[in-house]
Design goal:
By secondary structure, the chain is α/β, with parallel strands linked by helices. 34% of the residues lie in helices and 20% in strands. Helix 1 links the parallel strand 1 and strand 2.
Length: 155
């Protein structure tokens, strides 16, 4: 199992994606968890070991997924439910690293959908600087017709 750290449940689960064995990621993860504890926001952490590039092909096959994001340097436009998005392929040598990152998030999104419980998905370099002004109950109020909601924050 990728989930390795668990503390008594309070209000909401925060899954922290980290690169197991990577000292920078491990340190950032520890700093994030410390900031969560200091914030007293009523969340508890579960550390999730990120999918690695070596796992992407077999995991994509087992999940019956195909990678369709543009390759580096390409731009594609797609429209989903009336919203037009411009997708720009990220530069980088190893596309499998981007696929691994996306799969890590996908697995947690799938978990949220299956459990029907609000959760936070955080990368190792996030920090809590203050408490959220919403609770798990508030998030349920934002849910769509399928019962889910995704709020993405990036700074």
């Amino acid at each position: 199992s990728r989930l390795i750290h668990y503390r008594a449940r309070e209000e909401m689960i925060a899954y922290v994606i980290r690169l197991a064995g990577n000292p920078v990621s491990e340190s950032a993860c520890a700093t994030l968890i410390e900031s969560m504890n200091k914030s007293s926001c009523g969340v508890y952490d579960v550390v999730f070991d990120a999918v690695t590039p070596d796992e992407t092909d077999s995991l994509m096959d087992s999940l019956r997924l195909k990678w369709k994001y543009p390759s580096p340097g390409r731009v594609e436009t797609v429209t989903v439910k009336g919203v037009t998005l411009e997708l720009t392929g990220y530069a980088g040598r190893d596309v499998r690293k981007r696929v691994a990152c996306a799969l890590s998030h996908y697995l947690l999104w799938r978990l949220a959908a299956r459990t029907d419980e609000p959760l936070l998905i955080l990368e190792h370099d996030a920090l809590f600087t203050r408490c959220f002004e919403w609770t798990a109950s508030d998030l349920r109020a934002f849910s769509d017709e399928r019962g889910g909601v995704i709020i993405a924050l990036n700074d």
